[in-house]
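Regression test case RT-17, inverse folding.

Input:
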């Protein structure tokens, strides 16, 4: 196994959906590894508390960001440059789910989910790409086991199939630029995503370790997909 590589001096890690769950756990792990952080989410108060805990203005900045709004996404990348002068890692992590069944949920909830999970991820890529090209950085996306196989009545599954395709499309576009692309596909995770804890579930920290494993590889190594399930998950 290639040895882990420390981040470049002053490297900056942008995370959407950073106020809870996988995003928050990744922020904590990245801070431990020495990254400076841009924490983006709609919940500004929770972000500011997390930013203060992870080192304050010199180490972490909180940015209000609705990932479905282009100006918010551009603002998050601008915050990285204005505060820290660069961007090395962008993690398109924001997303949420829905009950299965095409007669469940409301059309409004569906619309919000599709815009967040698909359009929001695409906007993160668009906003971060020029900066990642400059630093030969790393793009990560949160997919799902549900993006590998269709689930009965699941529009959420369809959004994660789109993210799977987006990750590969980005990888192909970025070939030759030095930018690496990783799609992280968790199974059930014990996060606010679920109203009840699944019987078999990963902790958010488990996924965060996988994210940092991917970004810590030598420059010649590009881990394109990581499928991570809790032991005992059937699907």
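Golden output:
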């Amino acid at each position: 196994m290639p040895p882990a590589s420390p981040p470049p001096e002053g490297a900056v890690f942008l995370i959407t959906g950073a106020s809870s769950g996988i995003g928050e756990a990744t922020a904590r792990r990245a801070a431990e590894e020495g990254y400076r952080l841009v924490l983006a989410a709609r919940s500004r108060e929770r972000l500011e508390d997390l930013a203060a805990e992870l080192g304050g203005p010199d180490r972490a900045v909180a940015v209000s960001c609705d990932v479905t709004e282009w100006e918010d996404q551009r603002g998050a990348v601008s915050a990285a440059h204005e505060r820290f002068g660069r961007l090395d890692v962008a993690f398109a992590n924001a997303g949420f789910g829905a009950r299965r069944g095409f007669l469940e949920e409301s059309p409004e909830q569906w619309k919000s989910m599709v815009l967040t999970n698909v359009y929001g991820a695409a906007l993160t890529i668009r906003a971060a790409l020029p900066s990642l090209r400059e630093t030969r950085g790393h793009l990560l996306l949160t997919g799902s086991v549900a993006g590998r196989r269709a689930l009965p009545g699941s529009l959420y599954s369809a959004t994660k199939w789109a993210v799977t395709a987006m990750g590969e499309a980005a990888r192909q576009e970025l070939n030759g630029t030095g930018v690496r692309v990783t799609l992280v596909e968790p199974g059930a995770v014990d996060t606010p995503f679920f109203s009840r804890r699944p019987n078999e579930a990963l902790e958010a920290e488990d996924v965060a370790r996988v994210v940092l494993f991917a970004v810590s590889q030598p420059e010649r190594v590009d881990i394109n997909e990581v499928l991570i399930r809790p032991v005992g998950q059937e699907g």
